[in-house]
Design a protein that fits this description.
The protein has a single domain (3-193), classed as 3-Layer(aba) Sandwich (SMI1/KNR4-like), CATH 3.40.1580. Helix content is 42%, strand content 15%. It has 7 helices and 7 strands. The strands form 2 sheets. The chain has a 5-stranded antiparallel sheet with strand order 3-4-5-6-7. Strands 1-2 form a two-stranded antiparallel ribbon. Helix 1 packs parallel to helix 5 (145-158), helix 2 (30-40) packs antiparallel against helix 3 and helix 5 (145-158) crosses helix 6. The two termini are 30 Å apart. Residues 85-93 have low confidence and may be disordered.
Amino acid sequence: MDSDLAEAVSSLQEVFQQRRIGARFGKNTDEVVRALKKALALPPRYVAFLKAADPLDVETRTPTERIRFIPAAELEREQLGYGRGNADTPASVGWKEGWIFVAHSALLGDPYFLDTTRPDPEGDCPVMTVMVGSNRKPTLCASNFACFLKILATSMEVAVNFPAEAVDPEDDDIFREALAPKLRLVDPAALREGHWT
């Protein structure tokens, strides 16, 4: 892993420990990640993540969202219905080749995906989301996967001051307001898109 990705992974793992929320990360062999990279045309930085910090059982928790990562062993199967396999599923409507489903909202079911059609020089690409079954255009969640991990870690840090369950609707707005200035430092483009705030 490069230093940006390693720092992002470390920040996310630390916040799980600090909040005493269970999360399991694993490792994969070169052979496993090479096969996935070939099958799904994964970008290098995401491949490095799967090799060093495979999200075996990882779900972030904040007042506004819960994001559940897809582990490497399930990644190929989870693409079915999202542009691969059965094209008649509701999820596949408007799904484009080059979008790789890597996580989903545990609250709403919406996918979080890598847009591999827009690679950057570091071997990374933007993370997007879209409401399943809607005609809405995808929204940028993070300028790249490393920023996505940093945004999730930052969100969970801000969420420390909020109840873990049964969030009051007012807490939702207060959380978003508290998160916004921190997002400006992590990923200004994602803040402008407004998905998190």
